[in-house]
Specification:
By secondary structure, the protein is an alpha+beta fold. 44% of the residues lie in helices and 16% in strands. Helix 5 packs antiparallel against helix 6.
Length: 431
């Protein structure tokens, strides 16, 4: 959900400083000054002026705080009304100061690949690096598709937005199937392309009318594919109790357990340090940090399992390790701990094409569970293990998901496990 907050950058307590606005939404975090509103640092607290009657000039009808409230409302309403997608900083500055000349729309190419480059250059200031990375991945796939189509159809030169009809969609799906992409991945990429088409239309680029009617039932496409695995409480206990033969494996084991009891992404939990731990007046310890992917400010209880690991290590988190090595080592940790149940799922492997070239794809089959363990299993394990044991709202506070729908993608319990959990809940209620 979009949000607006205000802050000042000045440090001199008695010198007026320009108030800044910070606008945030999913994947968006931009800041801009409000040149006509100022406040002294000594009079500023929690995004407001402490002097509630303070005005810019004596003749003003509104106080500074009232003007901030009105500006916040204006920014949010215009954001949902106009749905700006690129040039967000310029858009925000224009909302703050409407007298500023609105930037003219530039002319952009109707070549899909060239336009994606423009899209990246316009978005990279306002979105997370991971979003730009995903955009580049889709662009590279489209580029390979274009090169393949040039070979198949001699008169084909470039992919233009007006070429994106249903015939293109069918041909692209066929190409992705030949390249061993999962149908769910193909749908996600087409869904991204549909979004790019909407952006292109906002710049008056001609887009084929078929794209607006494309539908992607990703849930249906993935129905027959097993959900990602997770480590149960019993398996975590076995891992915790198993002594590792080498120090580097013991270090990796502790990171794996921390991941499973903090519910964070590998990009976050491998950055944990003891300096992030805070304690309240009742002695409860918390971890305070900012999630790298979402920029969300987090404060989660430090569970006893994590505190035990810190106690074992003199109050510090395990040694730093790269996520590449962690992925390798935790497979060994789980193998030594006997996490070897044979399960049907996907494993990333090198696949040889018909022309003998090699590509990396997820191949489904029956594998020992330890071979399927990755650094992301901690987040999935936490969500699956604690779902139905604590209120969903509290679970969302831990994972940082904004909706229950997002959370449910991590709940990997089988129908039998769900039925047992449901029965236990009703038994406790006396029914």
């Amino acid at each position: 959900m979009a949000s607006v907050s205000f802050f000042i950058r000045g440090k001199v307590a008695d010198k007026e400083s320009t108030i800044w606005v910070r606008f945030r939404d999913k994947g968006i975090d931009i800041k801009a000054p409000v040149p006509y509103l100022k406040c002294k640092p000594k009079d500023w607290k929690d995004g407001k002026c402490k002097l509630t009657s303070k005005k810019i000039t004596e003749n003003d009808s509104d106080t500074i705080n009232i003007r901030l409230i009105k500006l916040e409302t204006e920014i949010i309403s215009k954001y949902y009304e106009e749905s700006p997608d690129i040039d967000l900083k310029d858009w925000l500055e224009y909302v703050i100061l409407p007298t500023k000349s609105k930037p003219d729309k530039e002319e952009y190419s109707d070549n899909v690949l060239l336009f994606i480059d423009d899209y990246i250059s316009l978005k990279e200031r306002n979105v997370a690096k991971s979003t730009i990375k995903k955009t580049n991945v889709v662009k590279q796939l489209l580029n390979r598709y274009v090169e393949d189509r040039k070979i198949r159809k001699k008169n084909f030169k470039n992919l233009r937005f007006k070429d994106l009809d249903n015939s293109f969609k069918a041909d692209f799906e066929e190409y992705c199937q030949k390249e061993n992409y999962k149908i769910s991945t193909t749908y996600r990429n087409l869904k991204f392309l549909k979004m790019i088409c909407k952006v292109a239309e906002s710049f008056d680029i001609e887009v084929h009318k078929h794209t607006a009617m494309w539908k992607f039932d990703i849930e249906k496409a993935t129905k027959a594919i097993p959900k990602s695995i997770y480590l149960t409480f019993d398996e975590l206990q076995r891992i915790e109790e198993k002594e590792m033969p080498f120090d580097y494996l013991d270090n990796a084991k502790d990171w794996l357990l921390i991941a499973c009891y903090t519910a964070q992404r590998v990009s976050d939990y491998l950055r944990f340090t003891s300096s992030m731990i805070v304690e309240d007046s009742e002695g409860q310890k918390y971890l305070e940090f900012t999630q790298q992917k979402t920029n969300a400010r987090m404060k989660i209880p430090l569970l006893k399992k994590v505190q035990d690991i810190l106690f074992k290590r003199g109050g510090e988190f395990p040694r730093k390790i790269s996520d590449v090595n962690l992925n390798l080592y935790i497979k060994q940790v789980c193998e030594i701990s006997g996490i070897n149940e044979i399960v049907y799922n996907g494993k990333v492997m090198v696949v040889e094409r018909e022309d003998k070239s090699k590509i990396i794809r997820k191949v489904f089959g029956s594998y020992p569970k330890y071979e399927l363990v990755t650094s992301h299993i901690g987040r999935k394990s936490f969500a699956s293990n604690f779902y139905e044991k604590i209120p969903t709202a509290y679970l969302l506070n831990f994972t940082g998901h904004t909706t229950e729908k997002q959370l449910l993608t991590y709940i990997n319990k089988t129908d039998v496990e769900k039925a047992k959990s449901t029965a236990q809940i009703f038994n406790k209620l006396g029914f």
